Amino acid sequence: MDGPPDAFGSPYRLLSGAVVPRPIAWVSTRAPDGTHNLAPYSFSNVATTDPPTLLFSSGGTGDDRKDSARNAIETGAFVYNVVTEDVAEAMNETSATLEPDGDEFEHAGVTPADSVVVDAPRVAEATVSFECRLADTLEVGASTVVLGEVVHAHVDESVLTDGKIDTRKLDAVGRLAGNEYARLTDRFSMERPP
């Protein structure tokens, strides 16, 4: 079968089902009034390493932005927490729709921890967290892409080998489609050609 994206049911289902696995940015922010927000985004990745910049794409633009994007833009900061298998259930809980004054940290049973450089909490239980200073935003269709320069990193010693992140120790979880996720349990290596 071939055709335009909507010929496959919906562009969302086509892209989210084929572009897999996707890393999950568990984005924590602080609103201007001081309240915390925590939400998962599977449309996320590394934008560049010079300067080190991460991105997540959030539904909505302008006044219709979701809390994470709006808070990051208004405060100039967010934290990109890496989702690992031990916090996957909690991450999923933060995708629930809460009342406006609801606290996703409390709802999911995770702990907000102070960041070192930015004014946004990180998830204390996350093995890896990146404090990001807002670098730029881009409205693309019905979404806002938020880019943040990494200004500080928190990496648990348990996932390091010789001072570097060891992907065999980092049990990162990837997003597939629907209710499906992937573990990084089946790995293989290939030598890169010259």
What are the low-pLDDT stretches, counting only 5+ consecutive residues below 50? none
What is the general shape?
globular
Percent strand: 35-45%
CATH topology: Pnp Oxidase, Chain A
Q: Characterize the main sheet.
A: 7 strands, antiparallel
Separation of the first and last Cα atoms? 36 Å
Q: Using the coordinates above, name the CATH class.
A: Mainly Beta
Sheet with the most strands: spatial strand order: 3-2-6-9-10-5-4
Count, helices: 4
- Total discrete domains: 1
State the helical fraction. 10-25%
Task: Note down, in words, how this protein is organized.
- With 194 residues, this protein is mainly β.
- The chain has a single domain, classed as Pnp Oxidase, Chain A (Roll).
- It has helices at residues 11-18, 67-75, 88-93, 104-108, and strands spanning 22-23, 25-30, 36-41, 44-49, 52-59, 77-82, 112-113, 122-123, 128-140, 143-155, 160-161, 164-165, 173-175, 181-183.
- Strand 11 (160-161) and strand 12 (164-165) form a beta hairpin.
- The mean pLDDT is 95.
Structural key phrases:
14% helix, 38% strand, Pnp Oxidase, Chain A, globular, 194 residues, mainly beta, three-stranded antiparallel beta sheet, 4 helices, seven-stranded antiparallel beta sheet
Question: Can you give me a brief rundown of this structure?
Answer:
It contains four helices and 14 strands.
Describe how the helices and strands are arranged:
Blueprint: H1 11-18, E1 22-23, E2 25-30, E3 36-41, E4 44-49, E5 52-59, H2 67-75, E6 77-82, H3 88-93, H4 104-108, E7 112-113, E8 122-123, E9 128-140, E10 143-155, E11 160-161, E12 164-165, E13 173-175, E14 181-183
